[in-house]
Amino acid sequence: MNVASRAIIGDTVPVRPPIRVLPFNSPLRAIPGINRVSRSRIFPRGAVVFHEGSIARGVYVLSSGRAKVSISSADGRKVILRIAHGGDVLGLYAGLTGRAFEATAEMVEVFSRQFSEFVDHTRMLLLSESALEKLARLIFRWGRDFGERTGEGIRVQILLTQEEIAQIIGASRETVTRLFSALKRDKIIRVKRDALWIRDSAALASLAQMSPEMCG
Q1: 131 within domain boundaries
Q2: Which pLDDT band holds residue 40 (cuts at 50, 70, 90)?
Q3: What is the pTM for the complete model shown?
Q4: Which of the listed residues 110, 143, 163 is the one where a domain comes to its end?
Q5: What's 130's DSSP letter?
Q6: What's the Cα-to-Cα distance from 164 to each of 108, 146, 174, rounded to whole Å?
Q7: Closest CA to 84 of 63, 98, 102
Q8: Minimum mean pLDDT range among 17-21, 23-27, 134-138, 208-212
Q9: Per the structure, how many domains does the chain have?
Q10: Are the C-beta atoms of residues 198 and 138 closer than 8 Å to each other?
């Protein structure tokens, strides 16, 4: 009786399903047996997933959250290339070849899509020459894509710190601070807390080497 009871109890214990390491939208899920060789790890905000120049021992896939992918310029400055989302593959080339990672991946807060689109403008900024032109192009695109027309000008919410803006345009934070001060002094923009207003779209477009009509 006791043996039967123990058998019944044993049969009714729920079986815990295996941990699913890869997200549903990961292209790596198509590889047979991939879950058997995958491991799950939690990285807190600010943690570095891998460093530029370190030897790769695998490929990383974001299950959730966001990761800032950046490289170092010749003079040691950090340049943000993109914000990776859940399901994105990181370090694929290095992981498959065993070579060093070509970038650094660092976990960041779960920002909105707008933040990611801010950073995605980096490819356009690489075509610019000076730091002033890059910053002007960035602000100009913010106004065009996310701006709200007000009596004071085109209002844009600022979701980035000056350090992050510096990393996007490949400049120092001190340079960004100086350029913001110059733009405010020339009454091209107005900045207050977490928002800025484009007060002179024509002047900003001239600095950005873009047509004023593109601001909409």
Answers
A1: yes
A2: confident
A3: 0.60
A4: 110
A5: S
A6: 12, 18, 12
A7: 63
A8: 17-21
A9: 2
A10: no
